[in-house]
Structure prediction request, 420 residues.
Amino acid sequence: MDRIPILRMGKFLLVTIQIDLYDRLATNLESDLVQMVNKTEAKGVLIDISALSIVDSFMGRILGNIGSMSKIMDAETVVVGMQPAVAITLIELGLELKGVHTALNVEKGMELLKEKIASDEEPPDETDEDSTE
Amino acid sequence: MKQDISKLLQKKKKQILEDWINNQLADATLREDLMSNDELREQSAELLDGLLKALTDKNFSDVESKEFEPVYEILAGISVSRAKQGFSPRETGIYVFSLKDALLKTLQTELKDDPSTLLDAMLKTNKLMDSMGILTFETYLKGREEIILRQTDEITEISTPVIRVWDGILALPIIGTLDSARTQVVMENLLQEIVASGSTIAILDISGVPAVDSLVAQHLIKTVAATRLMGAECIISGIRPEIAQTVVHLGIDLSSIVTKATLANALKHAFGILRLEVRKVQKEKIV
Prediction:
């Protein structure tokens, strides 16, 4: 049985989808991920879908579901690396993935997650790091 | 004995060509600026040659006969090239119909003594030349349509440039009406460019869009949502007062989208998001 690996990285969970998702795989991913969030008390979930070239309404819903589920378990979800064609398809299907954050690539997604966690945990410091240029 | 009309015409080919060319030259609408007389003569000779070669007494009355296909091909080529060169429909029509005059004139002089054959030949010639005329217009229009299609494609290509205004900021000035097909092109270009340049902010400037109706607004909202899914933020700028009025009157909700009055304001907002600052250079004071 195929499974999508879920990697733990500090407070975050990392999911990189490298193959085309079929329905069973997607529902498994959903339940595995929620379990992992519970077990590891993760604060953020990063899903990389840069290799995903085909998406249907079911897959879009699963992504949205993961976002909403993580949200009520106090974890932020970031979907990164969406292909232009996938984005257009999802919009045409009327799925705007309101519950999830998005970023261009993994790097920017990680930054975004850290920012979200930081603003959640402690009030932002007044001492911004000075840019010395 | 009944005379062989096609043979007769072939014999008189030179005379017909001369008449035809003279007819064309005599016409007031001759376009010497578009085509030189030599070229015209060459073109006419080719067509007449093909026509007389294909013409036999058997197929004279059958305008759809197979033998005429090469003639129609030559004619189609001529009218398409004329459409592209910018001849008017009238000028192109006169080109073919002046051949008819030349043919009829020859028939008239040759068959003076035989009225019944003359009438018969004239009717057939008329029919043949009419069908050639129709074909000319058909292909002429087709040539024109090709030009229009090509221009439409070009306009779509030109009208959706994606500009990198800053590192990480893209701008997309939209000029002209947004319809579904164009929105698709705009969206695809924008998303592709976002991936290629790794930009996080896209500014959609609609100051060049003449009118926004509910459909256009829908397209805009879609584009913004798609950019968001890609992980970039989309700002709409250049909303003119008339557009603001129509949008509100139509009851379109744009509150989920960041909208700015001008491209400059949008850029400023983008700088704010990226935590960039534009400052005036302070003059160094000499101590």
In short: Chain B has a mean pLDDT of 83. The beta strands of chain B are 163-166, 169-175, 201-208, 233-237, 258-260.
